[in-house]
Design a protein that fits this description.
The protein is an alpha/beta fold and 257 residues long. It has 8 helices and 12 strands. It is globular and about 45 Å long.
Length: 257
């Protein structure tokens, strides 16, 4: 499976028009790209880290699948590990999510800088820190934790460790959920299996059927709510104008991992 080639074909379909902003340092290149249709992307070493379509809150990629989870409960307390350019913050804010708190932890100062250019009106509380360190001692602080931390095509191994899983479990409230963007084939399948088994040591783990994205698996690790309960909560809470059919189908048909 040639992931880079497939992503390249997808990007070509937009027909790039301009590079709007870039940062080059320490073996990495961050850039903001704009296409003819107004869509913009943040790329890290030519890997797409964020996308915003000014005509829709939806990206037709993995970011969309996190939106329903913002409606698991009223006034959720949300933590996101991995900022990218701020796509998820953009979607939550444009969809009118009323979060009691929305913290985003990002270790890379250059990523924070480019996100401020990419989505300057974000109201999220961006914290420059290592997510592994930040999450320690946050007992019951969050209703939803989103893990979307990557270096190129791989989740840093610290976020697949038992220590992180235990700390994330402790940081969640009783009905809390840890949602993970897991890029399939980014590592060997045996590593993915080991990560899922480690999650199962603390959580009930479900996988979403992601019809509109080829390679990203969305794992939902729940402390206490089963799959049917998650679907019931998000379908009741999500405004109808954002209840896109593919998303709701995925939540209705989530499977135990």
């Amino acid at each position: 499976m040639n992931i880079k080639g497939e992503i390249g074909k997808l990007a070509g379909a937009f027909t790039r028009t301009s590079r709007q902003y870039s940062i080059t340092s320490a073996g990495k290149r961050l850039e903001i790209i704009r296409y003819h249709d107004g869509t913009r992307e943040v790329r890290y070493n030519n890997v797409v880290y964020s996308r915003i379509n000014p005509k829709s809150i939806f990206t037709h990629s993995y970011w969309d699948y996190f939106l329903p989870l913002a409606y698991l409960c009223s006034n959720p307390k949300i933590l996101m590990i991995g900022l990218g350019g701020g796509t998820i913050a953009y979607q939550f804010e444009k969809a009118g999510v009323h979060a009691e708190r929305f913290d985003i932890v990002e270790v890379d100062r250059d990523m924070i800088e480019i996100a401020r250019v990419f989505y300057p009106s974000s109201k999220a509380n961006v914290i420059e820190a290592n997510g592994l360190d930040y999450i320690k001692g946050k007992e019951g602080m969050y209703d939803l934790i989103i893990l979307d931390a990557y270096i190129n095509y791989s989740i840093p191994s610290q976020f697949t460790s038992k220590g992180f899983i235990d700390d994330a479990y402790a940081a969640l409230a009783g009905n809390g959920v840890l949602a993970i963007n897991y890029l399939q084939d980014a590592t060997g399948s045996h590593l993915a299996d080991a990560f899922i088994e480690a999650l199962k040591g603390r959580f009930d783990v479900y996988a979403l059927e992601t019809r509109i994205t080829l390679y990203n698996a969305i794992l939902i690790a729940s402390k206490s709510i089963d799959g049917a309960g998650i679907y019931k909560a998000v379908s009741a809470g999500m405004p109808k104008e954002y209840a896109e059919a593919n998303l709701m189908h995925s939540y209705a048909n989530m499977k135990r991992a």
